Amino acid sequence: MVHPIRQWLCLGLLSFGVGALAAHAAPPEKKPAAGADGELPPSPADGAVAGLAAATEPMRGDPVTDHLFPPDFVLQHESRLTLTPEQKQAIEADLKQTKESIPQLQQQLQQELKSLGDLLQEPTSDAAGLLAQMDKILDTERDAKRSQLGMLIRVRSQLTAAQRAEAVKIREEAMLAQQELQIRIQGKLEKLNAAATALARQGKSPQELLAMMQGFDPLVQQGKITEAEALLDQVLERMQPPPAPNTFKPLLPEIKPAKPKK
């Protein structure tokens, strides 16, 4: 499970796109269904296991972020944290103000990125000018992260010691539940992998399986693990063989009740 604070502190990178260029792997080389040496094509579940592990991997203890809580997390558990109306109002106002500042920072960063691109297109660009422009980009990133970290600190200051302790407990429970969910989904992926391997050995192409699994990775990347599990259940259900017809025949002839005598 991705630590919620990591998501907030990296919002400047993830939302604005600086340094977050995705590395897309090339599609696997096509292989025969089953060769003489028994080699099988890669299962559609192979990459899903790695993606799921990366999306749900819990963060190790962090001396800073373990003591901070995203405002939406606090508001989501306001009943259990017993937030007062004043606390809730202050957190909501701080969250609104921070969210309203993000578009301006995003626009500023996009302009700085465009300027850097323009400089790179010039044949006479010097290193000093490029580095100076890069400093502007990093300064904008720093402002975005500082704004978000400041909000997290203010949210923490709104909570009492007892509320902070309860928030830590809630987060640990959620991370444990997420780990259990990961183990459960991995077991289902192994079943899917076995089913796909069996089809390959029979010389069959699991096209229907591949088509249905296309939606799995996007759900995992978006953190929608529960929805990903539901999709996986649908695929596994479709992979189940049809029930065998009932060929049972009674050993004795059917005995019909005798008609009453008139």
Characterization of this structure:
It is built from eleven helices and no strands. The protein has 262 residues and is mostly helical. The chain has one domain. The radius of gyration is 28 Å and the shape is flat. 66% of the residues lie in helices and 0% in strands. α6 packs antiparallel against α7. Residues 1-45 and 52-60 have low confidence and may be disordered.
Keywords:
262 residues, mainly alpha, disordered N terminus
Largest sheet, described in full?
none
- The shape, in one word, is flat
Low-pLDDT residue spans: 1-45, 52-60
- Radius of gyration from CA coordinates: 28 Å
Terminal residue distance: 80 Å
Portion of residues in beta strands equals under 5%
Helix content: 55-70%
Q: What is the element string, with H for helices and E for strands?
A: HHHHHHHHHHH
User: What count of structural domains?
Assistant: 1
Number of helices: 11
Report the mean per-residue pLDDT as an integer: 74
Task: Let me know the number of strands.
Answer: 0
Give the class from helix and strand content and strand pairing: mainly alpha
Chart the SSEs and their pairings.
Elements: H1 4-9, H2 11-16, H3 44-56, H4 71-76, H5 78-81, H6 85-121, H7 127-158, H8 161-201, H9 207-213, H10 216-221, H11 225-239
Brief rundown of the structure:
The chain has 262 residues and is mostly helical. It contains eleven helices and no strands.
